């Protein structure tokens, strides 16, 4: 059993900082032999934007820190060479020395997945390269911030707004699943808003290509599917469960399963009992019953019709799926942006230079990145 926690941003009462380890009781988190084999099998080469030169840190001018974690930061940068001179990007910088084995696997998997997929509602990777001490992923800069921030300000969305966002997300998940990829970390924090009000899925650190089933206990407590908690092994159906949780949270302002302690959250999830707010429409409640379905043989998205059971549901009866995919529908919300480099929709962090390490760290693990 492997345990990986995706912490939720705090700011609403039901959020928890507790580890998934509470569920495992006396079992310590481990990274099993299978993952070590998978780690050695990964073969990565540099990724370069079409028509551009091979990337390196010197081609980018630091503008601002957009986010930070325990082993890296995300910067707003401007390209200062090549055909895309002047283009703004988000630069994800990871320090090799602070990455544990599982984090290296996740970084390389994230890079591989983003190179392979191409979808209007999935963040695009433009460059991937490394120095002796750091790994760099150059991604789209989406200046609208994340959906969690907007949801925190508005508390809840109208059902029409939820339909707009969830239609995009359903299409993105279906695209990932067509490659055998499970996303495994769906939540508002991982959905970025572009300048036109459309969303893009980001942060593929927990995503995994799976044939058959996998057993890793990972994700965000409120969004875990029952089969993950029960260690039964799971497949892409967990993403459709998480989609149901997200729909509920966006429409209600809180998730369907929450409590003070993780173990209490898991008990509620496994029970499968969901209470709906009085303002939910009958069609919305029906869709959620089919997504938040403990029985995998009845869960929408996991049946023979796949995503079409969701797309053809009454709740989406007024949704033009082609127009959504082609981004022809006017978004319900346009982020306030004062210009291309506006970062007002992101938190402020202490500024610093991007320093390139002069000592070689983990060179073997990141060979040919």
Automatic annotation (TrEMBL):
Annotated AGC-kinase C-terminal domain residues: 317-369
Listed SMART domains: S_TK_X, S_TKc
One function term, GO molecular function aspect: ATP binding
InterPro entries assigned to the protein according to its UniProt record, in alphabetical order: AGC-kinase_C, Kinase-like_dom_sf, Prot_kinase_dom, Protein_kinase_ATP_BS, Ser/Thr_kinase_AS
GO cellular component, one term: nucleus
One Pfam entry name: Pkinase
Residue ranges constituting the Protein kinase domain according to the UniProt record: 60-316
Keywords: ATP-binding, Kinase, Nucleotide-binding, Serine/threonine-protein kinase, Transferase
Binding site for ATP: 92
Protein family membership: Belongs to the protein kinase superfamily. AGC Ser/Thr protein kinase family. cAMP subfamily.
PANTHER family for this protein: CAMP-DEPENDENT PROTEIN KINASE (PTHR24353:SF116), CYCLIC NUCLEOTIDE-DEPENDENT PROTEIN KINASE (PTHR24353)
Name used for this protein in its record: Protein kinase, cAMP-dependent, catalytic, beta a
Naturally occurring in which organism (per UniProt): Iconisemion striatum
């Amino acid at each position: 059993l492997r345990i990986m926690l995706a912490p939720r941003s705090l700011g609403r009462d039901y959020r928890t900082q507790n580890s998934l380890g509470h569920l495992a009781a006396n079992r310590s988190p481990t990274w099993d032999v299978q993952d070590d084999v998978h780690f050695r099998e990964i073969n990565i080469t540099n990724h370069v934007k079409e028509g551009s030169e091979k990337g390196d840190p010197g081609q980018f001018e630091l503008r601002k820190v957009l986010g930070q974690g325990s082993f890296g930061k995300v910067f707003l940068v401007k390209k200062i060479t090549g055909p895309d001179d002047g283009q703004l990007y988000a630069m994800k910088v990871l320090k090799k020395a602070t990455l544990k084995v599982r984090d290296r696997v996740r970084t390389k998997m994230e890079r591989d997945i983003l190179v392979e997929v191409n979808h209007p509602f999935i963040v695009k990777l433009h460059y991937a390269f490394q120095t002796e001490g750091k790994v760099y992923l150059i991604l789209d800069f989406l200046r609208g911030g994340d959906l969690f921030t907007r949801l925190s300000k508005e508390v809840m969305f109208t059902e029409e707004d939820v339909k707009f966002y969830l239609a995009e997300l359903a299409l993105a998940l279906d695209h990932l699943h067509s490659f055998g990829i499970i996303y495994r970390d769906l939540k508002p924090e991982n959905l970025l808003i572009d300048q036109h009000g459309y969303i893009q899925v980001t942060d593929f650190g927990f995503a995994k290509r799976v044939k058959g089933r996998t057993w890793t206990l990972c994700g965000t407590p409120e969004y875990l599917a029952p089969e993950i908690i029960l260690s039964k092994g799971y497949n892409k159906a967990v993403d459709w469960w998480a989609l149901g949780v997200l729909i509920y949270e966006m429409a209600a302002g809180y998730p369907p399963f929450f409590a003070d302690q993780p173990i209490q959250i898991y008990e509620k999830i496994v029970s499968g009992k969901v209470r709906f707010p009085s303002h939910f429409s009958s069609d919305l409640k029906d869709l959620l019953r089919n997504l938040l379905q403990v029985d995998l043989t009845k869960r929408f998205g996991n049946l023979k019709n796949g995503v079409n059971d969701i797309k053809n549901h009454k709740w989406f009866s007024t949704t033009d799926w082609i127009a959504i995919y082609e981004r022809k529908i006017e978004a319900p919300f346009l982020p306030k942006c004062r210009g291309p480099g506006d970062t007002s929709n992101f938190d402020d962090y202490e500024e610093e230079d991007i320093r390139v390490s002069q000592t070689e760290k983990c060179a073997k693990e990141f060979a040919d990145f």
